[in-house]
Amino acid sequence: MVIPGEAPFFSHTITDRAGTHERPSRILLVDDDAPLRRTLPHVLAQPGRRFEECGTVADAIARLEHNRYDLILLDYRLPDGTGLDVLDWLANAGRPEAVVMISGEDAIDAAIGALRRGADDYVRKPYHVAQLQRAVQNVLHKALLEQANGVMSQRLKSSERLHRYLVESSPDFIFTLNPSGVFNYVNPRVEAMLGYTREQLLGKAFTTLLLDDDAIRVDVLLREAARGKRIHQVLELRLRRCDPNTGQPGASTVTVTLNAVPIHGRGGDDNNAAPAGIYGVARDISERKRAEEIITFQAYHDQLTHLPNRILFKDRLELAIAQAQRRGGLLAVMFIDVDRFKRVNDTYGHSEGDRLLRVLAARLKETLRKGDTLARLGGDEFTVLLPDIAHPEDAETIAQKIHAALAAPFQLEHGDFHVTASIGIAVFPRDGDVAEQLTQHADIAMYQIKREGKNGFRFFDPDLNAHYRERIGLENDLRSALQRNEFSLCYQPQISMATGRLVGLEALLRWQHPTHGQIGPTAFIQVAEEVGLIREISHWVVDTATAQLADWHARGHAALRMSINLSSQDFDRDDTIDRVADCVARYGLAQDRFEVEITERVMMRDTADVIARIRRLRECGVGISIDDFGTGYSALAYLQKFPVSSLKIDRSFVNNLNGQGTQPIISAITGIARGFGLHLVAEGVERPEQARHLKDMGCDTMQGYLFSRPISADDVNRWLDAPPLPPGALSITPPPQQA
Ligand code: C2E
Ligand code: MG
Ligand code: MG
Fold first, then answer.
1. Does residue 493 have its Cβ closer than 6 Å to ligand 1?
2. What pLDDT does residue 221 have?
3. CATH assignment at residue 94
4. From ligand 2's centre to the CA of 616, what distance in Å?
5. What number of CA atoms fall less than 13 Å from residue 649's CA on the CB side?
6. What is the pLDDT of residue 534?
7. Measured from the CB, is residue 570 less than 6 Å from ligand 1?
8. Domain limits for position 494
9. How many CB atoms lie within 10 A of CB 570?
């Protein structure tokens, strides 16, 4: 670094003091006495000394103009002037040459005049040789010292300038305090950093810049420093900026790190000596602080809603538990799950889903008090911490408030969207005394609400716990079941009463669980729907069933029908419908041979999309059968709206055939089927008299344990190869082994 206007610090060479005597010196003898001029070099000879001589003022000046000398021995009287003229010339030229005046003048005035005009010594003629030698020796030595001194002070000057430059242009606020803590130096940086002029701070106590919170810590640091202790600790604190209106320290602050070091006087670093003051460096770290704050915020908050995340929630919950434990108080944890949120994402896209979550978070927050924490755990799951409640019922009140807050529809780009939420509540200490346990129990309670039909709240019930654990295990196993090829289809025969032949099959799903053995669909279909696995499962069912049916057709049973069951979720999207259409086309399945059973739940969701999808299936030649017909709110209007081809009389009617009012229902259903030209199947036929009754009422196709349980494809093959049941022989056990 080069200081502006200054030669580089390092260019000065240092003269070794020890070399004084050997150092070469160039000496000019000016005297009009030629013999004397020739004698003197001998008299004054020393190693390293070189002599030149001349006899007039003009000569002397001529030489001086081109040469530098260490010493001039100057005669007073010269032919063209006096030695004083040479002294004047030297003074005017600012020359550093040392001069010893040699003169025969007696008057003391001459000596004084010469010394005043810059001569370093005066020797009067006649002199002793030793006297002159001493004078020369002294002057040369003095000149040498001066020269060394000059170099030294030049170095000091440069060094001082360097340090001043470094301090003044430092990006840090650098200052010194006197031992009482009052500013006696501040660098210009303070103006930009804190808004004070240097003059405003000089004479003021450092502590005026501090907030009360920091004052004590800084006071300790400064006291230590003032006692001469070297402190290695760096304090982080805030310095008050200048209030532009008052010129005094204001409320706005800058965060800095402060380093304070005692300034020692002559004693250097002597720790025992009282210091002359304190040297301080304050570094502005507000940018770094801000960056740290952002990083910390991101680590503890959810990016989308800016609510606390799981980590921060757990932290606060743990703290609240500790406090409640001390007080002997209560607290509540709520687990909130938005019902059917997935549908928003699936239907309108993720950006709409995100928008909904943001607005929702804001609404939820409004229902809470200041000390409560609302956190987003991810997806559509939120948790609430009510750190201080008087009774568990207080949590209930909040849950009601949340439901009320969600009552008004949310405006999405595609229109209004109604949101409901399921809320589970766990109360400390009743439902747990550890953060994780409380959250999990609130989650279990929430899950129970979901099962009960969503949109509500409930407190944790220990009895739910075991069930929940089972379900978690089921969920995990279900996720890998497809990959592990654990699903299979079995087929339940449908028999025509008129011919005694097997005319149709219902494909029913089975799960061969690695440890629990075979599991029926009622135990896992709903879970698969809830965790979003049903699509893949349905695709597998469609693929397997159509391939199997095509095989049976190819073996010569071309009239055989087969139905599969689809979930109502399969009608939310196009892909399962596409899959059915593709397979039916690929295997060239004839009209109405392949059928899809849907429940009344699907029909009740008679949105344009669902109707369109069912119509599409029908247009591909796929039969549409209404499963469990009569159990839901079957409205005749549906039968007009939907292109239905079959009805299945629910098992409950068949089972209750002799019960009150059942017979008319079955008659009505058979009537409807006939009226609409629909194929009719009775399911759950277990006893011969049921079959007979149904037959009498006009129902021909039957399915039930009376004929066969659901069986494997191989067993179906055996059945197909066997002769038909004799007409009327309803109780006869069918030929193949039963599954
Ligand atoms: P569902 O469609 O009503 O099927 C009839 C159910 O009744 C079957 O139970 C069958 O084994 C049983 N069943 C048949 N005959 C009798 C009988 O005489 N007495 C009694 N008590 N029961 C009889 P499963 O196989 O356990 O299936 C239960 C339900 O699971 C089915 O009811 C259907 O809604 C659903 N399901 C089955 N397979 C699938 C599938 O592949 N996908 C979907 N989404 N759902 C399926
Ligand atoms: Mg069915
Ligand atoms: Mg059924």
1. no
2. 78
3. 3.40.50.2300
4. 20
5. 37
6. 94
7. no
8. 489-507+534-721
9. 26
